[in-house]
Amino acid sequence: MDLGVIGMIVDAHVHLKHGDIRRTEYSPEVIVETMDRVGIDKSVVFAMSTTTKRSIEMALEAVRKYPGRLIPFVYALPNYERPVIAELEEAITKLGFKGIKLHAGECTLAEYVTDPVIALAERLGVPCLIDCMGRFWDIERMARCFPGAKLIVAHLGRYLCEDEALIDRFIELALRYENIFLDVSGVALTHKIREAVSKVGSDRVIFGTDGPHEAPDTVGFAKKELDKIKALNLDPEDEEAVLGGTIARLLKI
Ligand SMILES: [Zn+2]
Question: Which of 74, 98, 172, 252 has the fewest CB atoms within 10 Å, counting from its CB?
Fold first, then answer.
């Protein structure tokens, strides 16, 4: 094993542009300064609430400023004017993008929209981070139809979900399909993170902050999210995997 990787903390869910009502944007400077102050080594960054083309421009600009710190994902969103699949493929094969982001808030997860994207992710060997907003059956279908595609389910299934039974279904799904990974950003019921680790294994549970956020400030927010994982008192090997090892392996970094 690469000794440099041990103990590396990777935030696997960071927005250059959010999906909130104001479509908040954060500069790479703010993101990296926050990481420095919290002790996060690398962050996966992406933009949403914009076109695939613009998401590529924003992430490229950020990563060129901070190579080695920021890892770009490309945002997949259908477009009337341009073939998005070609843009995704170019971003991954020529521009160094390491994964794809999909969000049910901006496009349906129906098979006629998502399947070309998941097939591409499978073919190119990159993970797809999907915020499915609790749409369990869409994720179940993707996992079943694309066994070779690595699917990262954002927020343990649904952002700030208080419905334990729904989270349980996503954990059980991960038990059934080895290509499902669980992103534990934006999880309100933190004991479900521990449960996911003990049931599914830390090699498929991934830390992220879903930041930056201003409450109380970007540093305080990211620190609180990191402390949430540390407070679980996982076995050291599990904590290390959740905080960076698992995503590092997935992204081959
Ligand atoms: Zn997010």
Answer: 252
